[in-house]
Amino acid sequence: MKRYLTEDCLEKFKKELEHLEKVRRREVSERIRHTASQGDLKENAGYDAAKEEQGFLEARIRELKEIIAQTEIINKKSGGKIQIGSVVCLSSKEGKEKFQIVGPEEADISDGKISFKSPLGEALLNKGKGAVVEISVPDGKKEYKIVKIE
């Protein structure tokens, strides 16, 4: 399965993976050794917590390796249509908003990045400037007009 990421996001994931493998793994391993030396492992909460943390750490490392292996860098093509990687300026009754269309792994609404798999992202894909899209929201329907595509 392809995963679409910007170059910046891919680099962020690579740095996180490197940190987890080189720093966090060593820290957790040391914590396991330390807590294991404190007696009976059956009743050692510190040891249990460290082993649980190790499980989460290894799962995240596997997840990052999978994401990195499956990543396709977003290369925007010209053509005037919204695609993954496009920055879109929208207007609605509430005002103007600006979003970048990204893959689900990179989506962060507080940073203005929405997934192409989100309701708004799906509605915007392949639309051009001036188009109006309508999505369902908890209060009913919401309309957006595409003002600009970067």
Structure, described:
The structure is a single chain. The protein is α/β, with parallel strands linked by helices and 150 residues long. The protein folds into two domains: 3-73, Helix Hairpins (Orthogonal Bundle), CATH 1.10.287; 87-149, Roll (Chitinase A, domain 3). The chain is built from three helices and seven strands. The strands form two sheets. It has a five-stranded mixed β-sheet. Strand 6 and strand 7 (140-149) form a beta hairpin. Helix 1 (7-36) runs antiparallel to helix 2 (45-70). The chain is elongated, with a radius of gyration of 22 Å. The model has no long low-confidence stretch (mean pLDDT 91).
Write the layout of secondary structure elements.
Elements: E1 3-5, H1 7-36, H2 45-70, E2 71-73, E3 87-92, E4 95-102, E5 113-115, H3 119-124, E6 132-137, E7 140-149
Parallel strand pairs: 1-2, 4-5
Antiparallel strand pairs: 3-4, 3-7, 6-7
The CATH C-level class name of the largest domain? Mainly Alpha
Largest sheet: 5 strands, mixed
Tally of DSSP β-strands:
7
Mean pLDDT: 91
CATH topology of the largest domain: Helix Hairpins
**What is the beta-strand fraction?**
25-35%
**Integer count of domains:** 2
Keywords, please?
single chain, 150 residues, alpha/beta, Helix Hairpins, Chitinase A, domain 3, 5-stranded mixed sheet, two-stranded parallel ribbon
